[in-house]
């Protein structure tokens, strides 16, 4: 049964400077504060090297923070070694014990906790069944496919019924098709069990599809904490807008802000768009390619098609305009009416999907 | 986190650190320190003066260097030849050649030398008997052959490992750029093997100048530093000179050790790629054929030598009176000789598992637990083989002949000489431990490096503490390394001569020094019977160990590969 009273994780001002690194360089993690609600699926998302893994490993106890605190349900976690923290981690490499059978891998943690030895077989069987691993208990890790190994790693962590599950890019070793399937399974399972999950990935699609909330990180700091829709439609910074999905940023030197909306004039189009609260007098307008439309025109065009990339499900146009190069993406295009390079077009965007951001 | 902090929060870690430090401190650093002290005493400085001053002694130093260089040259060429045949030629009987090439690893150090005397000595079966020439193998030529044949297998295995890991696509790239076979070999293959060849050369140099057994059997008038030190101690009771002579061996040994550790090992990482793709092309033509012919010839010599040992054990006076007899085996197995057999086996059986476990424990501490202190620990442990056997032996005599008192309380009882505890066997076991542990450390370190650290973390994340993780995860995973470590610990403990020869007492006899005594007395039959029994015991023990800790079930398929060559490098016998 989901128990939404355990698994509340609070990180306060976490800083990690690796001992062997230049003390003047920026720390691997530079002051991260987070409140992970009980039962929540929270994803740390960001480019490689931004400090996601380090943050996760500090929560797990494998790295000691340089400063800051980590609390779980009010208890100080920094005093506890990793094996005493009620958390279980799923590793990128799966880290299955190669000399133990699938059954013994899953039973490993239960055997260590004396209070759980009683119903060990039953618990392991349930865990194996819930991960579609029935009948594979006697196999050894090297006799399993990558996807099955991944499930064993999950079962091994889940069976401990930890207060918090930690994932470090668990799907990055799987091929694309399988990854999507595992994503769904992880999501379902997490919902059903209600275990707080802290998930690390650099893949924005994975973050979007799995998370209740996403933490976008950059250079050791948090850029934004928000739901997937918010992160996509109302990014806190140009970095976030760029990292999540595709976007064109058009510089807008002068903006008149009224009632929280900004009035801009682009492609000869007068529009009022949603605005970031920190916006000053000038900013950048974020337009997503799918909300830009291009119509061939003989006169008064605002752009010229510079490149055409046909993708099957859609077509991408790079259009040169007075404001810079704009990306436009048309879904499900009619192949007989694809535009050609050099075509003059009228460019339009949907103001309800655009967002005005401060220059960074 | 500071070491102190780590240690305080983990009692298991603290205990293992204390044990390891105590063993290395008492068994290695303290005795070597005593040798240094003695060499720096007034008598020691006198002896040092005469080492530099007297022309006889200067001759000994020159002899030692000449021997080291010639063994290193011959041994490296042999090793390369065999490795080349194994990895780059498409010829029959390669497997047989491989097995023959590693036979010398398990044979006692003077079995080879003694057989050479019987075959090519003053009354040699072959030199005198077949060719009728009064060839005298004693001296530089005999020593070079015996030592090169004894030590080349280790270098051979290292080179085979390197050559198998060289990416064949590099050869292919050079070929596609227009280089012929010879050109490819000279410009691509050879340069990448240079670190391996260089380290093999250095290893052979150090091993051969530190060797004591062969110069005693085959040296004749050709005196080297190790045999001079031995004579100073056992014949002239001149400990100070012994200390100085043996220390002068330690200087090059430790230099080479440092060079190896901080220069060559680093370069290797860059020159050998991890995952070879495809198969190396094989060589044909007259040069390849010559290489093969020489390898086969050398293999035949090794076979001949081992056959001599076997037949010699069953003949009355090998080479002179070839009548069949079981008297030698009777002497070794049931007569007075059996004492040494039992003592040696018992001590090896005690020392080897300790060495294996302690070595693996050190490896674990070094790789996983103590990132800062670890390298120091590793360094000291590896000194156990870098320090010449004579230094360690003399050090034990100096350090432990009388009991060590601190404030009037016996801290360490006498371990050497007539009054030693348990007839000196404790001292011998400690020496065996120190000498065989480095192999286990190397094996452990390289196999731990192949286990992803997240395996340990997964265990911790599931609630296991450090000692549980070590027992349930680490130890089973490095079982092959432990096995390799144990194997060499056994071979080494049973065949070691140079440190032990200083420590035997009337109560504790070891086979290696008994063989030496029999050879000295000209009773080659007894010596050969000892060698046969010794090899049989070594192989039996190794077999038993393999049976006992063999992997069960299919987990074996994924077991961490045994790092054969690095283990051997740490395990050459003196
Ligand atoms: N053990 C370590 N020692 C020193 N620097 C490290 C160590 N681990 C990670 N770093 C550095 O810390 C930064 C953050 O790394 P990491 O947390 O692994 O990033 P991410 O998981 O987001 O890719 C990187 O610059 C990385 O080079
Ligand atoms: Mg990472």
TrEMBL record, chain A:
Taxonomic source organism: Umezawaea endophytica
Domain ABC transporter: 9-244
Record flagged with keyword Nucleotide-binding: yes
Molecular function, one GO term: ATP binding
Protein's UniProt name: ABC transporter ATP-binding protein
Coiled coil segments of this chain: none
InterPro entries in alphabetical order: AAA+_ATPase, ABC_SmlMolc_Importer, ABC_transporter-like_ATP-bd, ABC_transporter-like_CS, Mo/tungstate-bd_C_term_dom, P-loop_NTPase, Transp-assoc_OB_typ2
Keywords: ATP-binding, Nucleotide-binding, Transport
Zinc-finger recorded as keyword: no
GO cellular component: ATP-binding cassette (ABC) transporter complex
From TrEMBL, chain B:
PROSITE patterns in the cross-refs: ABC_TM1
Keywords attached to this entry: Membrane, Transmembrane, Transmembrane helix, Transport
Subcellular location: Cell membrane; Membrane
Entry membrane topology: Multi-pass membrane protein
Superkingdom, taxonomy of origin: Bacteria
Record carries keyword Membrane: yes
InterPro entries per record: MetI-like (IPR000515), MetI-like_sf (IPR035906)
CC terms in the record's Gene Ontology section: plasma membrane
Domain ABC transmembrane type-1: 61-260, 341-545
GO BP annotation list: transmembrane transport
Transmembrane segments: 12-40, 60-84, 96-120, 140-163, 184-206, 243-264, 285-314, 346-367, 379-400, 412-434, 481-503, 527-549
Similarity annotation: Belongs to the binding-protein-dependent transport system permease family.
UniProt protein name: Iron ABC transporter permease
Organism of origin: Umezawaea endophytica
């Amino acid at each position: 049964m989901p128990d939404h009273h355990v698994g509340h994780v609070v990180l306060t001002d976490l800083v990690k400077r690796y001992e062997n690194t230049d003390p003047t360089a920026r720390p691997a993690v530079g002051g991260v504060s987070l409140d992970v609600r009980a039962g929540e699926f929270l994803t740390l998302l960001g480019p490689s090297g931004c400090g996601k893994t380090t943050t996760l490993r500090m929560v797990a106890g494998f790295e000691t923070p340089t400063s800051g605190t980590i609390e779980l349900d009010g208890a100080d976690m920094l005093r506890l070694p990793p094996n005493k923290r009620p958390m279980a981690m799923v590793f990128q490499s799966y880290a299955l014990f190669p000399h133990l059978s699938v059954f013994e891998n899953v039973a490993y943690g239960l055997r260590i906790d004396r209070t759980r030895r009683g119903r060990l077989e039953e618990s392991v069987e349930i865990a194996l069944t819930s991960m579609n691993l029935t009948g594979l208990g006697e196999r050894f890790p090297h006799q399993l496919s990558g996807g099955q190994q991944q499930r064993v790693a999950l079962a091994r962590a889940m069976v401990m019924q930890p207060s918090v599950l930690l994932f470090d890019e668990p799907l990055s070793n799987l091929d694309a098709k399988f990854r999507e399937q595992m994503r769904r399974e992880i999501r379902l399972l997490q919902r059903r069990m209600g275990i707080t999950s802290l998930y690390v990935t650099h893949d924005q699609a994975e973050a979007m599809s799995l998370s209740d909330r996403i933490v976008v990180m950059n250079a050791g700091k948090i850029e934004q904490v928000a739901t997937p829709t918010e992160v996509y439609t109302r990014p806190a910074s140009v970095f976030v807008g760029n990292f999540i999905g595709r976007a064109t940023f058009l510089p807008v030197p002068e903006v008149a802000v009224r009632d929280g909306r900004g009035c801009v004039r682009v492609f000869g189009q007068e529009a009022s768009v949603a605005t970031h609260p920190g916006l000053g007098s000038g900013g950048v307008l974020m337009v997503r390619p799918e909300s830009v439309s291009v119509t061939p025109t003989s006169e008064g065009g605002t752009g010229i098609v510079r490149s055409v990339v046909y993708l099957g499900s859609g077509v991408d146009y790079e259009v040169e305009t007075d404001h810079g190069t704009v990306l436009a993406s048309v879904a499900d295009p009619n192949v007989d009416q694809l535009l050609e390079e050099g075509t003059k077009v009228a460019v339009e965007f949907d103001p309800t999907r655009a967002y005005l951001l401060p220059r960074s | 986190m500071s070491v102190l902090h780590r240690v305080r929060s983990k009692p298991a870690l603290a205990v293992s650190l204390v044990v390891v430090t105590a063993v290395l401190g008492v068994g290695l650093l303290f005795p070597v320190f005593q040798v240094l002290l003695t060499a720096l005493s007034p008598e020691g400085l006198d002896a040092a003066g005469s080492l530099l001053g007297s022309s006889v002694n200067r001759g000994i130093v020159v002899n030692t260097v000449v021997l080291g260089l010639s063994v290193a040259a011959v041994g490296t060429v042999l090793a390369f030849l065999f490795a080349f045949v194994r990895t780059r030629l498409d010829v029959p009987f390669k497997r047989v050649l491989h097995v023959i090439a590693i036979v010398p690893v398990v044979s006692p150090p003077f079995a080879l030398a003694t057989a050479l005397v019987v075959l090519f000595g003053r009354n040699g079966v072959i030199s005198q008997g077949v060719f009728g020439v009064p060839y005298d193998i004693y001296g530089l030529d005999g020593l070079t052959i015996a030592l090169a044949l004894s030590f080349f297998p280790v270098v051979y295995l290292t080179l085979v490992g390197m050559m198998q890991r060289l990416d064949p696509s590099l050869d292919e790239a050079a070929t596609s750029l227009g280089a012929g076979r010879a050109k490819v070999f000279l410009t691509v293959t050879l340069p990448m093997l240079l670190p391996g060849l260089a380290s093999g050369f250095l290893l052979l140099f150090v091993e051969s100048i530190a060797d004591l057994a062969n110069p005693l059997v085959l040296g004749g008038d050709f005196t080297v530093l190790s045999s001079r030190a031995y004579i100073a101690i056992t014949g002239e009771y001149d400990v100070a000179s012994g200390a100085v002579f043996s220390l002068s061996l330690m200087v090059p040994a430790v230099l080479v050790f440092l060079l190896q550790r901080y220069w060559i090992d680093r370069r290797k990482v860059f020159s050998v790629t991890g995952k070879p793709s495809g198969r190396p092309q094989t060589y044909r033509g007259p040069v390849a054929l010559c290489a093969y012919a020489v390898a086969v010839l050398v293999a035949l010599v090794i076979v001949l030598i081992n056959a001599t040992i076997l037949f010699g054990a069953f003949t009355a006076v090998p080479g002179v009176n070839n009548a069949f007899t079981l008297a030698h085996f009777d002497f070794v197995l049931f007569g007075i000789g059996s004492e040494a057999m039992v003592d040696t086996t018992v001590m090896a059986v005690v020392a080897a598992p300790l060495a294996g476990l302690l070595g693996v424990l050190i490896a674990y501490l070094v790789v996983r637990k103590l990132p800062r202190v670890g390298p120091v620990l590793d360094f000291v442990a590896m000194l156990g083989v870098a320090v010449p056997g004579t230094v360690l032996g003399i050090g034990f005599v100096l350090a432990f002949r009388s009991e060590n008192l601190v404030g009037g309380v016996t801290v360490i009882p006498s371990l050497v000489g007539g009054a030693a505890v348990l007839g000196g066997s404790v001292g011998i076991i400690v020496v065996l431990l120190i000498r065989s542990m480095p192999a286990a450390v190397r094996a452990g370190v390289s196999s731990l490096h192949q286990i992803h650290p997240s395996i340990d973390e997964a265990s911790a994340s599931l609630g296991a503490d450090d000692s549980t993780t070590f027992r349930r995860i680490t130890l089973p995973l490095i079982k092959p390394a432990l096995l390799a470590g144990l194997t060499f610990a056994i071979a080494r403990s049973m065949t070691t001569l140079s440190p032990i020869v200083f420590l035997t007492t009337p109560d504790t006899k070891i086979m290696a020094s008994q063989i030496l005594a029999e050879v000295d007395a000209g009773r080659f039959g007894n010596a050969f019977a000892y060698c046969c029994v010794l090899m049989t015991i070594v192989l039996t023990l190794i077999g038993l160990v393999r049976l006992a800790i063999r992997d069960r079930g299919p987990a074996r398929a994924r077991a961490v590969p045994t790092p054969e060559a690095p283990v051997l490098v740490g395990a050459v016998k003196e």
